[in-house]
Design a protein that fits this description.
This protein has 4 helices and no strands. The protein has helices at 3-19, 24-31, 36-44, 56-63. The longest helix is centred in the N-terminal third of the chain and has 17 residues, at 3-19. The chain is elongated, with a radius of gyration of 15 Å. The termini are far apart. This is Phage integrase family protein. Keywords: DNA recombination.
């Protein structure tokens, strides 16, 4: 198997994390990048629309509606 077999899922997961507003420093550490510039390359590969970013709290509140 080639390197792309292992890298593709990692790139997908990283982009998913960025789209879900995960801290870039956490990703940098997780990916083992010594420079934040390396991790920031991922942010240039996707377009983030501020209206589609939902905070973790908003997602939780949306999925767990309270019934009184």
């Amino acid at each position: 198997m080639g390197n792309s077999t292992y890298i593709a899922p990692l790139v997908c997961y990283t982009l998913h994390c960025i789209e879900n507003n995960i801290n870039i420093r956490h990703l940098q550490n997780m990916l083992g990048h010594s420079s934040p510039k390396t991790t920031e390359i991922y942010t240039k590969t996707i377009e983030i629309n501020n209206k589609t970013i939902i905070s973790s709290l908003d997602a939780l509140l949306k999925s767990n509606t309270l019934h009184v």
